[in-house]
Amino acid sequence: MTMRNLGLSIYPDHSEYQKDVEYLELGHKYGFSRIFMSMLEVQGSVEETKAKYQKIINFGNSLGYQTFIDVSPGLFKKLGISYSDLKFFKEIGATGLRLDQAFDGATEAMMSFNPYGLIIELNMSN
Length: 126
Known about the structure:
Blueprint: E1 6-10, H1 17-29, E2 32-38, H2 46-62, E3 66-71, H3 73-79, H4 87-91, E4 96-99, H5 106-112, E5 119-122
Parallel strand pairs: 1-2, 2-3, 3-4, 4-5
Helix pairs in contact: 1-2
């Protein structure tokens, strides 16, 4: 029997924390176990971004969700994150990253061997 993991999407820069909590609780009730969280349009400072995302990811983690963050090369530049040090994403509680745009092949490979155990996925919608 193949196990399927259902996921839902959250856009913290376009939603309210309390509504996200209610959405996650409802999804949990119906067996959802993954969160796809967009970080493609972050607003605010690095600290504000970290706090906002960490808060909702921690809540999701408390319900047993795994959170995958949608990222692009522009996000790394905006937040000053190096492809070779993905500590930021581990600190906010993410399970992994979904690469929303093409990098260069070598970068995807390098990121997949990160010391934090973050899962690297390719988002094939692009």
